[in-house]
Specification:
alpha/beta; Aspartate Aminotransferase, domain 1; single chain; globular; four-stranded antiparallel beta sheet
Amino acid sequence: MFSPSTRDTDFPSLASKVYLNTAAEGIPPRAVTDALAQYAQDKLLGMDGRQRHEVQWQQAKEQVAKSYNLTADEVSICSCSSEAYNLAALAMRLREGDEVVINDLDFPAGATPWLQPTCPAKVKVWQSREGALRVEDLVPLLGPKTRLLTVSLVSFFNGYKIPLPSVVEAVRDHSDALLALDVTQALGRIPLDLTGVDLVVSSTHKWILATHGGGLVGVPAPRAREWTVPAGGWFHLQNAFENDRFERAVSKPGAASFTVGMPNYPAVYAINAALGYLHSIGVPAIDAHARPLVRACLDGLKKLPVELITPDEPDAVAGIVAFRHPDAGRIHRALDENQIHVMSHAGRLRIAIHGYNTGDDVERFLDVLQNVL
């Protein structure tokens, strides 16, 4: 991932482009495409392939557990982060008078289940200031009625990384709320310390370099009762095929209750391979390689006539840098013509830097951007 030879071998599609859009879609290594091919071969075995699928399922759970610093019994895999949050909403059984705190830097998946008219809880919004979520602004929103704080470790919008230990402390000191954390824009890119988090969620097609169709769920064992999903299905039920199955439905506790039906085995094969690939390199090594590139990108953007919307604070930066410009559409088209891939939306451009990126990638992006401006 860090040398030209391994980059060419593992990520051959990157030879012809500067790819700075991992926050939207990661580029899978060859190990993932090989795993998908293996799934196809195993599927050709029909029912006999189930045993191989189940081996991949257990291995994938072990890889997720390693990423979250949990046990394999404390993690599971559903179809996507949106499904995970909707199932979490079922598990909470919110009532009139309950309160949920969301924020204005979050992806819709973690915020919108609580905004549906069927949700009886009152929603409070933790407002950002200058692109950052300040803990002193969170504290007044917490109280005895607060049931949940949901937030992303790293914002998809501008890359801001919350001070997680301070957020955990505030939640514990000022409420009895549960803390749900989306690590989609962090997992596989920066080392994680999830101490004090009650529910962990991540999608799988971005920084971990797997495919669509996966949602990685972590529930620490002490919180299993609070996060047991009362959904219909079968894979997550203790009594799916017992004699009383048409009299009652009994969910498995905690994380296991988030996989309500047949696992998406193609995604499971990909998740197993992708996390195995990243763990073989080491996320700290990935961060050590990519962090200076992010710093160079930030410093370069500060010299240009753009509105930087990523807070330039050392502990608040992960893999994403974002800026605004009135001519964002033209800038995006010019970058694309030069085979430089970034994300553009509503005047905002977002750069995402991963372990497969190089100093040359950042330099070329800044050079072309300067010429366009």
